[in-house]
Design a protein that fits this description.
By secondary structure, the chain is mainly alpha-helical. Helices cover 70% and strands 1% of the residues. It is built from 21 helices and 2 strands. It has a two-stranded antiparallel ribbon.
Length: 393
């Protein structure tokens, strides 16, 4: 027993080292695009993404000179917390699977994946709080606390609307698995799921308000004037970010959807992201077999990681969006492990998963894909020519 524990400990340390090295490949301080988001709150109406800036306002409004430091500290703390949570999820999977060969390979693939690189690279973006709230909501849904899960998702919508695509479907799936575990059927199952309608209503209200209750031109002008008071917002981000805040979802769809096919079938990004997702799909199948899961829930689990790709219809940050299936696959695999019978999960083995994982690891190590919108502090891509400006003196 002791030699096995020692071996498991060494494996865990190796995986932790791989995670840290991968994170450092992309880690940086928040760029101007991200910092500008932390400065636009509910002072300008019930606009999308207004909650973080509103909560941080006591620190940013008191002294514009210190605002940048406050943003950097809070954003970096959230990124660090996200890393700890991801490590905890991976640890839970390894323990549940008894450090089986397939579990170790799957976690190693995630630890070296483009998503971990992107986690460091997008320090300051709202991805960290969104993923944290998604993990919280999934945990609550699995424990049968759909009301609290709905609250976490609703708060997430006030941080960034992408949680509706990244987190909401996975939470619904986890709640369905919890109902099956607790043998809740019929009206009892419906009552347990009913609170999860709240995020749906909240998203609909946000969509309507953003589309019909906002004067986009006036809001954009007001936000530009506001951001110009912060000297560290440069490289035209004081203009570009207000434009993104003021545009409705429909306007984003109209401008971005014509490019969706090129983004979905980008060969470089498919090569970088899909092998990791494929490894996790095989692991999910293995875990759900150990849970004797019905076919419908198994098919849903396989589809969930690909839902975030629908964001290509309204957003332009191609590499960032392509990394989302990886985190969704990890969360689905985690819940599948929790649902599985431990002995069957530990005994399960797939040569295909092991072989694909061993082929994916060097691919993850050799390739580096970071957000095309944030690869430099001085650049941004809005689906057209890249804008690069010299720093203002």
């Amino acid at each position: 027993m002791m030699p096995q524990r020692r071996a498991d400990g060494l494996i865990a340390l190796g995986l932790l080292w791989a995670f840290g090295v991968t994170l450092l490949r992309g880690l940086r301080r928040p760029n101007d695009w991200a910092e500008a988001h932390w400065l636009i709150g509910y002072d300008f109406g019930l606009i999308k993404r207004g909650l973080p800036a509103t909560l941080l306002r006591p620190f940013t409004a008191a002294s514009p000179e210190r605002a940048e430091m406050a943003i950097t500290l809070v954003a970096t703390a959230l990124t660090a917390l996200l890393c700890l949570v991801l490590i905890a999820v991976c640890g839970s999977i390894l323990r549940r699977a008894g450090f089986s060969r397939n579990a170790v390979v799957a976690v190693a693939v995630f630890a070296t994946s483009p998503f971990v690189v992107m986690t460091g690279h997008l320090n300051g973006y709202f991805d960290a709080p969104i993923v944290l709230l998604t993990v919280l909501a999934v945990t609550l849904a699995w424990r049968g606390r759909a009301g609290w899960a709905a609250l976490a998702l609703t708060i997430g919508l006030l941080v960034h609307e992408t949680i509706f695509i990244i987190g909401f479907p996975t939470v619904i799936w986890a709640a369905l698995l919890a109902n099956r575990r607790d043998v809740a059927t019929g009206q009892a199952a419906a009552r347990r799921l009913a609170p999860l309608l709240a995020p749906l209503v909240a998203f609909a209200a946000l969509f309507v308000y953003q589309s019909f209750a906002i004067d986009a031109a006036e809001l954009e002008s007001t936000l530009i004037t506001h951001l110009e008071t912060f000297p560290f917002i440069q490289y035209d981000q004081e203009v570009i970010v207000p434009r993104a805040f003021a545009k409705s979802f429909v306007a984003h769809f109209q401008s971005q959807s014509p490019r969706v096919w090129g983004r979905l079938f980008d060969p470089g990004l498919m090569l970088a992201m899909l092998p990791t997702v494929a490894v996790w799909l095989l692991f999910i199948r293995q875990a759900l077999r150990a849970a004797a899961m019905p076919r419908g829930l198994t098919i849903a689990a396989w589809l969930l990681p690909f839902l975030p790709l629908a964001l290509h219809l309204i957003a332009w940050d191609t590499a960032r969006i392509w990394s989302y299936p990886i985190i969704v696959a990890l969360l689905v695999g985690w819940v599948a492990c929790l649902a599985a019978e431990p002995a069957r999960l530990r005994a399960a083995d797939s040569r295909l998963l092991a072989m694909l994982g061993l082929l994916t690891l060097p691919l993850n190590v050799c390739l580096l894909y970071t957000s095309d919108a944030a690869d430099e502090r001085s650049s941004v891509d809005l689906g057209g020519p890249r804008i690069i400006k010299k720093k203002k003196i």
